[in-house]
Known about the structure:
By secondary structure, the chain is of the alpha/beta class. It has two domains: 6-41 and 202-261 and 358-413, FAD/NAD(P)-binding domain; 82-193 and 266-356, Alpha-Beta Complex (Polyamine Oxidase, Chain A, domain 2), CATH 3.90.660.50. Helix content is 33%, strand content 24%. The protein contains twelve helices and 20 strands. The radius of gyration is 22 Å and the shape is globular. The chain starts with 5 loop residues before the first strand and ends with a helix. The structure holds flavin-adenine dinucleotide. The site of flavin-adenine dinucleotide (FAD) has 32 residues, from helix 1, strand 18 and helix 12.
Amino acid sequence: MDNKKVIIIGAGVSGLVAAINLENEGIHPIIYDKNDRVGGRVQTDYIDGQAFDKGFQILLPNYPAVQKYLDVRLLHLKYFASGAFVFKKGYQSKLGNPAKGFDLLFSTLFSKLASFSDKLKIIKLYRSLKYKSFEEIFESPSQSTMSYLKSFGFSNKVIHNFFRPFYAGVFLEENLETSSRMFEFTFKLFSESKAGIPEKGIQAIPNQLANQLKKTTFHFNTAINKVEDKTIWLSNGSKEKADFIIIATEPSQLITNLNNQQSLWKSVDNLYFEVKNRVVNLPMIALIAENDTFVNNFHYASLASESQQILSVSVVKTHDLSREELVKKVKNELYDICDIEVKKLLKHYKIPKALPQIHDLNYQMPHTETKIKDNIYLAGDVLSNGSLNAAMLNGESAAKALIEQYNGLTLDMA
Ligand SMILES: Cc1cc2nc3c(=O)[nH]c(=O)nc-3n(C[C@H](O)[C@H](O)[C@H](O)COP(=O)(O)OP(=O)(O)OC[C@H]3O[C@@H](n4cnc5c(N)ncnc54)[C@H](O)[C@@H]3O)c2cc1C
């Protein structure tokens, strides 16, 4: 069934999952990507044996799409303990879901970061989401996460000390304006499974997807400028015709009449430092719960046993500081609030397009809605919500729609 030419633009996880689904139907797609490798926003640089993920990103193994497309065992995830280690000036404590495990029960119950009533509400929220399906979550009325937390009855204290810094790091925005659907979705996932990073870095995820592809052709370092009439225009001026095209990235840059519908994006800075000391001995995400700090969260990218201690720091706050100014601010905050002494900066990634800002979030784009023009389909997280789960599911949706039309055409020809 490989006599028709199918082109996919984008070798991110969405384009790769689309290709897996096409190969399963005997179609051999051709993927173009402007980058030099697979992964899109999921990338790792390897320097002297150390993995530097381009942006702090975690895998929730209970994402339904992950269970479908990845062999999680082979990723050898390094799991984080659930909850977070919270730093405030002169105070530090662990906080998590007390219903989730003995390790966190006592520290959470005795933590001064939340009232007793807040701790009971965390359990109530966990129970209320336990039997709510992901589809139901994304069909629920949407409000900002901040107003959701307030209307659930959480105190300003726990919002300030835990929810705001934790979810600022997840949503990559400080005011928790992101839809309550995304909050319920991620809260449920976090409370039902630990999050982890593959031993070889986050790039192991797209690499594993790409390794499943046996009949797909890749063209890297090849930007596409325009898609029109089943034709793609390459940045070198040449063009390629196809029978079907899947655009697995923001489409507005490629399709002329979508030019005015560009996505808005949330940004993040990710800095890696070699540090002198280790102040969190558990594998745990640490947060700074102070107003107006640049550091939102950090974790040790190295194991306690390793001689070089590497700290990965995320800055969610939008700013126009130079690298030097930002590094100075971050170093001071790490020292003043967390007692961490920085030896030197190892890496700095500025990621202007990290997560799409989507107003009306959905769980997965129905396959019947992925077709944008004759024989042209859309995929990518930008259609639904900024997550690996949505990126994979939308790759699947686009492929499914294409396969249905492909099969229809093949039948017509017979
Ligand atoms: C810092 C950061 C933290 C994140 N944290 C998490 C997290 O913890 N958990 C989670 O689930 N998700 C997280 N995400 C989101 C997740 O990475 C994305 O949802 C997912 O990778 C999107 O995949 P995609 O294939 O839809 O898009 P992309 O990864 O953006 O892939 C699009 C591809 O298209 C290519 N492309 C674009 N334009 C062109 C062109 N004109 N010509 C040729 N090629 C082109 C790009 O090079 C890219 O490879 C995070 C993302 C970032 C950046």
